[in-house]
Amino acid sequence: MAEESDFELRKRVSDLLVARAAEHGTLLETDEVALRSVRSRLRTVAPNEDIVHEGDRPDTAVLLVNGMLARYQTLPGGERQYLSLHLPGDMPDLQSLFLDVMDHALCALDRAEVALMPHTQLSKLVLERPAIAFAFWRMTLVDAAIFRQAITNNGARSHSARLAHLFCEQLFRSKEAGLAEGRTCSLPLTQNQLGQLLGMSQISVNRALHKLREQGLVELRFGRLTVIDWAALVAHAGFDPAYLHVAKQGVLPRTPFGKRHG
Amino acid sequence: MAEESDFELRKRVSDLLVARAAEHGTLLETDEVALRSVRSRLRTVAPNEDIVHEGDRPDTAVLLVNGMLARYQTLPGGERQYLSLHLPGDMPDLQSLFLDVMDHALCALDRAEVALMPHTQLSKLVLERPAIAFAFWRMTLVDAAIFRQAITNNGARSHSARLAHLFCEQLFRSKEAGLAEGRTCSLPLTQNQLGQLLGMSQISVNRALHKLREQGLVELRFGRLTVIDWAALVAHAGFDPAYLHVAKQGVLPRTPFGKRHG
DNA sequence: CGCAGTATTGAAATTTCTCAAGCCGAGTGG
DNA sequence: CCACTCGGCTTGAGAAATTTCAATACTGCG
């Protein structure tokens, strides 16, 4: 997490973008070149700072480079509901390319770095390059799949299973993104925020957490999650990663729209 | 709801498909022709019958023609969580074009008619016709927006507000689809199913419903919802239809990808 | 060192769920 | 035509879960 030069950062932006797109479809070399040619503005965001507000009409899309972001909605009474957590490589407001006004806000959970990519450039990309369009589309579909699982998680699971499921998902996704260190990953949420994510009070979070810790399943401290007993955690959560739609195989095309020639 | 001839039904399928696509983007005349040329298989589904199961790898996508569908997930213990309700014109498993295996099931709530459209044909459409691809993409994005609102609804609102919000959404969407009769629309769910949709017990649904009825906000009987006091219901629910991303204006392009020439 | 935000814990208040019984309307079959 | 049954709705009451309130400890940052 050392400071990176502007040059290094821009390289990282391109790499993340290409890698993520390639996970969701097979790109031509020209597609990769096109992705790398996107000019973005870099920005550092403070913890709890909003990047986009509900009601905004953004003209850029966010690519997360470092740190963790969250989306949330606010109720008339001021209650906050977190909707999703995001890791580097995610484009949490990609939908704004088609949905003009934000129905939710996007904020940083810790100190985060983001790249802002103008809609004009992204529109051009998806218009001219079907492979990129389909890869981006698929990203938003996986996003939706995660929302579905969140509905089920918050609606049908017990408090401790809910928390356990979140932990499974976060460690799994962090591993997937190459961000986990062994059985440990970043999870910089307060108990209060976890409550606003899982639809339970901060105190219930504390108690559910206590149970999981007591049973030797996890540790959560200093914004880091450590899974002690993965198998037991998965069992307790009823976690099945199928909904994350990660490719099982290597780099074979996952969509009907792969390379059209060698 | 009279019986329709096969010919009439097929016309209705095309009309629904074109109308829905046109709501999400500006189509060329050739796009419309292409949409109308999709060959689909018609099928009638009994109440509670599954159309697609969790774990399936469908090779068609469903377009709902008549009736109401729902998506749901099942937990290891057998508990069911409904994720969304669908009206005619919806394509509830369009994501299966890119996400090979279903992370949820799709079932009919009442006697429903669906058109099954082969992935091969839809793939061809979106590959060759950007306007159609973008319209379909946008449909899936609105879908995701509805999921987000469901997370907030189930996680942060009181029981009666939850129910009220669902009612607002259903009447609003039914009106939008031209299916409401005044302040009345179809809602063929049992209290038990409403509970599995909103994350509350059947008895809590009954009591929340009782409250809303008592205050003269709604009636719900025989699978029909009647809103008595729309303004009060909206206020009670904290309902703001922005998340449904319905075009405010007429037929102006809503995406950056409208007609490219007169 | 001390403040501010966060975590922990206990206990009361409230909500929500479960259990249980009765009711109602639709469909069935005598 | 009526009794019967079944599924769904309604209602009450006790049990359980959850939230709220409140007081205390911990931690990181200034």
Protein architecture, described:
2 copies of one chain form a homodimer. In chain A, helix 3 crosses helix 4 (130-156), helix 5 (159-176) packs across helix 7 (202-214) and helix 6 (191-198) packs across helix 7. Helices cover 42% and strands 19% of the residues of chain A. In chain A, strand 9 and strand 10 form a beta hairpin. Chain A has 262 residues and is of the alpha+beta class. Chain A has helices at 6-24, 29-36, 119-128, 130-156, 159-176, 191-198, 202-214, 230-237, and strands at 41-45, 50-52, 60-66, 69-74, 80-86, 105-108, 112-118, 184-186, 218-221, 224-227. The interface between A and B is large, with 56 and 56 residues. Chain A binds a DNA duplex (30 and 30 nucleotides) through residues 159, 190-192, 200-204, 206-207, 210, 222.
Counting DSSP E segments of at least 2 residues, the number of strands of chain A comes to: 10
Uncertain regions spanning at least 5 consecutive residues of chain A:
250-262
Estimated radius of gyration of chain A: 19 Å
Which secondary-structure class do the elements of chain A indicate? Answer: alpha+beta
Instruction: Give the ordered list of helices and strands of chain A.
Output: HHEEEEEEEHHHEHHEEH
The helicity of chain A comes to 40-55%
Query: Average pLDDT of chain A, to the nearest integer?
Result: 92
